[in-house]
Amino acid sequence: MSKSTSIDKPIHIILGGTFDPVHFGHLRMTQEMLNRFPTAKVSLMPAAYPPHRPQPGATPQQRIEMLQLVLGKYPQLSVDTRELERDEPSYSVVTLRNIRQEVGDACLVFLMGTDAFEKLNEWYEWKALMKLTNILVVGRPSSQLPTTGEVADFYHEHSIESLDELPQHRFGKVGFCQMPQLDISSTYIREQINQGFSPRFLLPDGILDYMNQHGLYGLNPKS
Ligand code: ATP
Ligand code: MG
Hints:
Elements: E1 11-17, H1 24-36, E2 41-46, H2 60-71, E3 77-79, H3 82-85, H4 92-103, E4 107-113, H5 114-117, E5 134-138, H6 150-158, E6 174-177, H7 186-194, H8 205-213
Parallel strand pairs: 1-2, 1-4, 2-3, 4-5, 5-6
Keywords: ATP-binding, NAD, Nucleotide-binding, Nucleotidyltransferase, Pyridine nucleotide biosynthesis, Transferase
Enzyme class: transferase
GO molecular function: nucleotidyltransferase activity
């Protein structure tokens, strides 16, 4: 693991996702970020589901509440609700433009797993992201950094030598962060429940309690 970096400007790290539900894969990524960048502010930013994709099991409000439940006691971690406050799914580039205006010339880092990064070229105006933010890619089981194609070329064009360099760049760089990989996904959690199995120990107990209380993902509501 690379050592942490001392910096004079705050680093804003954003993990976008659907968090349906939030699990230890997401949460461990945030801690790995704080271990490397101790002064960072890390936001988890739930997205609205695009209309053509299967709709989430939890409502936007429930997804926010689950995130707040688990992040509430950690001051450096927060929930950014802006994408769910709009009625329609918003493009990441538009959201990041908005965030850039708020953070001024701070270092901005958009965090994503390799499964998301390998499809980056399907995102609206994806190359424009580089004028707004850095991207940090985290290894995820069953997917890898692309070695050929547009996204691979993009990675090579913008990649940094070492993660320690990242805080010096406000935007425009892509890094890869190796960390112990957790083969956990929200899909797997929903599938386990669907098959009548418990998802316990894949996510915080408090989240599972919330899911039980609200009868999410096919669980029977409990009081
Ligand atoms: P789903 O199965 O519903 O797609 P998910 O587990 O992939 O859920 P998302 O909310 O889609 O979770 O993920 C948000 C971001 O977090 C994505 O960039 C994704 O790559 C990353 N991520 C999620 N889980 C992990 C994990 N276990 N390891 C590394 N990255 C992860
Ligand atoms: Mg996903």
